[in-house]
Amino acid sequence: MQLLFLVIKRIELVDEIMRSLAQAGIRGGTVIDSGGMAKSISTMDNLPMIGVLSGEDAAQKGKTIFVAVADDQVDVARKAITDVTGDLSQPNAGVLFGVPISFAEGVN
């Protein structure tokens, strides 16, 4: 199994992403509010804004979706997500990654 994480600023897409996952047979996703590094350091007086963060809106909040999937569902879930988000390699489009799960209880 893997735990897939999608961090996205375009919060208006969250419901559509969850619907796309459900239509692909993926169940049990969770959505939480999240904020990026730009937001965290924007209020620190002694830290300069890092060049990589210069294109980010520090006030903007995002969402993080995480969902546990069987190994054979990873590609299906990735496609369901990118069908909605588009190409995640574009700047500020979002971040999607998977982490192996060594055990899980209460997950079908």
Outline:
With 108 residues, this protein is an alpha+beta fold. 25% of the residues lie in helices and 24% in strands.
Description of the structure:
- With 108 residues, the protein is an alpha+beta fold.
- Helix content is 25%, strand content 24%.
- The chain has a four-stranded antiparallel beta sheet, covered by helices on one side.
- α1 runs antiparallel to α3 (74-85).
- The longest helix has 12 residues, at 74-85.
- It is globular and about 45 Å long.
- The relative contact order is 0.33.
Keywords:
single chain, 108 residues, alpha+beta, four-stranded antiparallel beta sheet, 3 helices, 4 strands, 25% helix, globular
- The level of helicity is 25-40%
Work out the number of β strands: 4
Task: Indicate the radius of gyration in whole angstroms.
Answer: 15 Å
Q: Roughly how many Å apart are the termini?
A: 11 Å
Described by strand count, sense and barrel closure, the largest sheet is:
4 strands, antiparallel
Order of helices and strands: EHEHEHE
Strand content is 15-25%
Spans of at least 5 consecutive residues whose pLDDT stays below 50 are none
Mean pLDDT: 85
Large-scale geometry: globular
Going across the biggest sheet, name each strand in turn: 2-3-1-4
